[in-house]
Design a protein that fits this description.
Elements (H helix, E strand, L loop, with lengths): L10 H17 L6 E5 L23 H14 L3 E5 L13 H11 L3 E6 L12 E5 L4 H8 L3 H10 L5 E7 L7 H8 L5 E8 L13 H16 L11 H5 L10 E5 L2 E4 L16 H10 L3 H15 L12
Parallel strand pairs: 1-2, 1-7, 2-3, 3-4, 4-5, 5-6
Antiparallel strand pairs: 7-8
Helix pairs in contact: 2-3, 9-10
């Protein structure tokens, strides 16, 4: 069976995830459930905020990725995200990232997402969610990522399934564009919403970091967007704890793997002091969720199933 025709997540898998969440909260388990797999560190862009691409310039062999996925699944990971570099560049020798998704399905992962810069296409109907980096309006985005905004928007509009999510890293260059990205997401038929992060100041990218006042302001603005009904996938109840850095971290329920090496939460954990400045919203949200923060738990129960259990719809277009 092709990857596009593979079976979508079943009730059993989601009951398993529910049980994981319940027992993690009750018994303070630290087992991982979300895994990020680096399939390549090659990238076709040189984004100002990135410090991890094109360090080795390799595509990890298909067999290596299979071993890493088996290891993650054996640890209890059920939500898998494929990262780069740029994962759409990955090949070995004739396989593409679609074959990696198919292998993940065969192993048993009920939910597989891909994080891409969108310049090599964004149409991956095999994935449950495709997170496409779009860092503001055209002017801001192109200042950060090079002149790619129009190409990415064209690829988003050309996708055949509504399984896309805009992925914005808010920094000092694009801080004014938070609302504009949410407004754009609401107009695109292939896009489910927007997921925000704040810039994590890896060495060499410190000038893009937000001030504490800007961080609080951005979190307040995202909260207002959620209350106004914009398609934002972040959790409003977690935003105050993200704004003031008070959410517990690192998050042991998140792991990242590259070429057989594994880190808890993210690679920033290796850099002294960087974890304390993390801008990765999802890790904050999961950390609060699995610590049993009541408001976050209730909001996650209300909003996450709609994202995780949905079946991406086919996008129909008028014949010209």
């Amino acid at each position: 069976m092709s990857a596009a025709g593979s079976v979508r997540p079943g009730l059993r898998a989601w009951l398993e995830l529910g049980w994981f969440g319940l027992t993690t909260v009750l018994f303070r388990r630290r087992d991982p459930v979300v895994g990020s797999l680096i399939v390549t560190d090659r990238c076709n862009l040189a984004c100002r905020h990135c410090a991890v691409a094109n360090l080795r310039r390799v595509d990890y062999p298909y067999e290596r990725l299979q071993q890493d996925m088996l290891s993650l699944y054996g640890q209890g990971v059920r939500i898998l995200l494929l990262y780069g570099g740029e994962p759409m560049l990955w090949h070995d020798p004739t396989r593409t990232v679609r074959d990696v998704i198919a292998a993940a399905r065969a192993i048993g992962f009920p939910w597989v997402g891909v994080v891409t810069n969108g310049t090599r296409g964004a149409d991956l109907p095999e994935a449950d969610l495709v997170l496409v980096s779009l860092d503001g309006t055209r002017e801001s985005h192109d200042a950060i990522r090079g002149r790619t905004y129009d190409r990415i928007l064209a690829n988003i509009r050309a996708a055949t399934r509504a399984n896309l999510c805009l992925y914005m890293a808010v920094n000092s260059t694009n801080v004014a564009d938070v609302e504009a990205v949410a407004e754009l997401a609401a107009t695109l038929p292939t896009v489910l919403g927007v997921s925000y992060n704040l810039h994590t100041p890896y060495p060499g990218t410190e000038t893009l970091a937000l001030t504490p006042e800007q961080r609080r302001d951005v979190c307040d603005r995202i909260g207002r967007l959620i209350r106004r009904g914009y398609p934002v996938v972040n959790l409003a109840t977690a935003l105050p704890r993200i704004a003031d850095f008070s959410a517990p971290r690192p998050c042991p329920q998140c792991v990242i793997v590259e070429d057989g090496e594994q880190w808890t939460c993210g690679r920033c954990i290796e850099t002294p002091g960087l974890c304390e400045q993390c801008g990765f919203f999802f890790a904050y949200e999961l950390s609060l969720l699995f610590h049993g923060h009541p408001a976050v738990v209730l909001e996650a129960l209300r909003r996450y199933p709609a994202l995780l259990l949905r079946s991406p719809r086919l996008v129909t277009r008028a014949v010209r």
